[in-house]
Amino acid sequence: MAILMAVVPAEAKKRTFELNIQPTLLNPDCFNQSYAVLTVNGQYPAPTVRVVVGDTVEFIIKNSGESNVSTSVHIHGILQFGTNQADGVAGITQVPVAPGCEYRQEFQIVNQTGTFYYHAHVGVQDDSIQGSFIVYEREESLIKAEKEMLSEGLIQEGPFEYHEERILLWSEWWHQSMYDRQAYYTSPTFDGDTGPDSILLNGKSVYENCTMENCPGFAMIDVKPNSTYRLRNIGGLTFRVLGLFIQHHNMTLIELDGEYVQPQLIDHLELTPGQRSSVLIQTGNYPDGTLFPIASFYKWSFNYHKTYSPSGFGYIRYVSDKTKSASAIRVTDAPKNLPITTPPQDHGWILRDLKPINHSNPTILTTSPSRTIKLSMAQVKMPDNTTQFQNNGRVHKPWGNDTASLLDIIKADPDPGPLDPIDGFSVKHQTYPVKLGEVIDIVFQNMKNEAGLCVTHPWHTHGYSHYLIAEGPGDYDHDEHKSIFTYQQPLLRDVSMQYLWPDIPGERPCGWIKIRLYAVSLVMAKV
Known about the structure:
By secondary structure, the protein is mainly beta.
């Protein structure tokens, strides 16, 4: 079995960030009304956090007494080795941070660099509590990235060099307050997700037929001519899978979920909820003020019609070192003259063609798993007409309470009690106990909802990474499918997409994916 070793740079630091959670009225898409949400330090998106591998990071979460709701902050994609209490999941790894209280999360960045983000993990607070979290290989890269418009020099991260980098944080926005939106999802009147009113780029958009005066317009991504840029895309999304492209600029994919991949030329980027991807673009020899649209379109949704999202746009804006006059340009009109149709939504996008820069751990991938856990997740109507998820026929029961998290409860009483003989479930702890050092496979079985529809699901392993090794249509049958590997060079990831498969008449199961992981810490999977 492989031994996990942490390499800590000699210049590693402790960096402390204070996140003040407070109520705010927002109108990011120039609609005719603002809505009550929670933000970090009054900013949306939340402040960007930049650190270096080996650093110890301290988050001080201060929840304003005016918030009226508890909160927590999850650092999405960051490994938590021995610091599960810092993962930021209310009820599971910590008690919720009540109004007027604070909570400190401290963890070390171990053996990982790349693009991550942090977001709230209570209710629908992540709509507005979300910010970028970037990990660099060296302090020099961090300092250069913070300066943005550099005049000379290159940033080198991994095997790639580029002049500058930009962050593109994509999110969804509803014309509802945070409180009204959460009430809808948990009420008997819930009748399915109706989709966002706007797609935001870096917290900006322009709603259709906007009449607001002084509208800031669509987000602008400033670039200089004849330069190489790394665009760090972050899927701060709840439900939608986006296709993204930049007019007249080719993209080369180099990173997925904090893992470098062999450079792959792409005609569009597919971005799922929680996923992060870096692409390189080469800018042209264009004059100041030249604009090129960044366009988004919906993928893998019922309203997919090969057309663009109504407001999910931004612009590449050319700005030279000599003048900043172009920085005053703002655009409130959606781009014209885009291609009539969007790229096709091929099953799996290009994932099977991707190859990791750092080869997968052969021991984990060639070792036979000690067991396979199959999780069949289904959306069901309850007797009171509310909608919940069932996992292997079990309705979710809350973990922890206001005084003790699930982690606290298990530490105080680690005996899981009798385990289900079929899937190994602990009724006592409402968990699937896993032994330290175990290599296990987890199958996520997709199921049609009450309306007979099958929907896509992204699965995220908290504080942990996994290998996506196989997928297939219909119902997973262990005897038939246990040895199937549909991904010959699996990537180490923390978000894996469960795509739609062709419908099999008369069957409720509608496709599955299988991941493999090596249990060296607490593992949580979330849809």
